[in-house]
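Weekly sync notes, structure subgroup
Attendees: PM, AL, DS (notes)

Item 1: joint prediction request from the bench team. They want all two components modeled as one assembly rather than separately. Inputs as received:
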Amino acid sequence: MTALGNAIDVRGLTKRFGKKTAVNGIDIAVPEGQVWGFLGPNGSGKTTTIRMLCGLLNADAGEGTCLGYNFRTQAEQIKRETGYMTQKFSFWEDLSIRENLDFVARVYGLPGQRALVDETLEKLGLEQRQNQLAGELSGGWKQRLALAACTLHSPKLLLLDEPTAGVDPKARRDFWDEIHTLSGQHGITVLVSTHYMDEAERCDRIVYISGGNIVARGTVADIIAGSGLITFTVEGDGARQLAPKLRGHPGVVFIAFFGAMLHVSGYDRALLEQALAPYRNDPNLAIRETAPSLEDVFIQLQENNGGASA
Amino acid sequence: MNGRFSLARVFAMLGKEFIQMRRDRLTLAMLVGIPLMQLILFGYAINMVPRHLATVVSISDPGPFSDSIVAALANSSFFDVVKATNSPAEAHRMLAEGTASFAINIPPNFSRDLVRGVQPELLVEADATDPAAGAYAIGAITTIVSSALRNDLRGPLAARAYAPPPVNVVVHQLYNPENITRYNIVPGLLGMILTMTMVMVTSIALTRERERGTYENLLAMPMRPTEIMIGKITPNIFIGAFQSALILTVARFVFHVPMLGSLPLLAAAGMIYIAALLAVGYTFSTVAQNQMQAMQMTFFFFLPSIMLSGFIFPFRGMPEWAQWIGEVLPITHFLRVVRGILLKGNGFTEIWPDTWPMILFLFVVGAIAVLRFRRTLD
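Output from the run, pasted for the record:
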């Protein structure tokens, strides 16, 4: 692998379950050392893609490499150098924290197992609780343990499948600090799937997948700019009551609620202005243009590509 | 409103339960399959008065009288003459192997003594390891022989045909002369208990990992299927060995079951048997989606094992199709091996005919388990 190669470089990745095509010929190239966000509605094929990349599912079509290994034939080598964190906590709840780490260290045949586990426990701040069963940990701690366990063997690539689902904001922030440390200091490449916009914004690049197809990719700014979306906010008393009146107007593509505020978005500025014109003079309402948020863009992407989550 | 009994709510609950029942196909199959299986097994396969018992006749005095006896035995519904030989040693060997349940020995000079009216002895050796199996047949044998000879003893010999009986039937209950049922049941329990526990424990091996989501993690790590399998199965081998030792100790010191043969030989055969059972359990665990299904599959395997193996009901009493099913099950062979070693003092040569089927079973089912194992979540 060259110094500036791609950690993941696959083309035409396809997976079918019966008649349903879960992943429909997608291309992904993640340069080494970058953190990429993998977004898309539930059932869009994120988990399936990640599982194919680490050899947990056989791809029906596609070619390419993961860490320089053929992802279809060299799954064993890829597994040795990849850390995969499942969506649901998948370590052994009836083993203690230390026993879980010991097991992982032994499976990978890591030298200096005892010292390594000691060090990891200390880094996690779990030395005092090392003999507690993993099942007794709270969601946030389980997630930290899982991350520590799947990076124990110093992988070059981390595949994280919705790692922060159901975790409190503080724990999520700490988790992301850890991800950036791993990426920045150890040059680990990360592909992380998420539903959180703030997390997407922490990524170098975003890939948005819907119905098994990649429908947008690039930096956050690229994606917002590429959406061609124009958004106005409507703020003030009675803003909510405005939503049903605006819906159905040819210029309004969608409306989203942000507390008492409305985000009214569309593609055609003239038509959008026209839709909002009757309410411009309402003293209770403040209408102004804003940059569309990533969430606006994603909702629009989701609606344009088969609508509701499958 | 809420306090009153509401039929509508009952119907809502009923509706939900029926939908869920219909979705749980395996449970539904069990609810239909188990009664059918039980009915067929109890109705057709199980016969408390076993007939057509394999019999070897060892003839040291060939002649019309012995021909009549063989013919009469063959005509009776109790005995199937599988072999007529002139070697008493071969007859013994067949009893030890269990290929025959009875050996009927027609002694030298049988015809001469019969004609002279000195009541020759007809020695009937019965395999009494399963006392229930032979009781009715033994009861019938004197009548069968006497009436067979009655046809031959005509003219000047007619006087010999009636009282006192023309021959003196001597029955030797081999291996379990006192007809003690527990000598048969207790070694059988060894096979039974192992079947139940080994298959059950192993069938949840992978299923539990799958159910808890840890299976995905296991597969994501550089583990080979055989490594996972060996790691999963080995602890159960120890459990099986421990159980066997426990059962045999109790059998010996509490039930005073005789142990004539070699215990190391029994241990070796036991290991093969345990391995075969673990292969079954592991195969189930590659199929079952949850622990409930694994239990149901175990039960499906357990039922024919208890009924068709000769554990409770005499094997030879079953119709041929049921015996064929029984022959496939490892427990059928293991029961013969255990009873053979403990009660008959059998050695390797005698148990081999029942050892290789277990080995074959182990390899076939083991291969299925390995092939069924998926390295991926597909």
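Discussion: Chain A has two domains: 6-223, 230-291.
Action: AL to compare against the crosslinking data before next sync.
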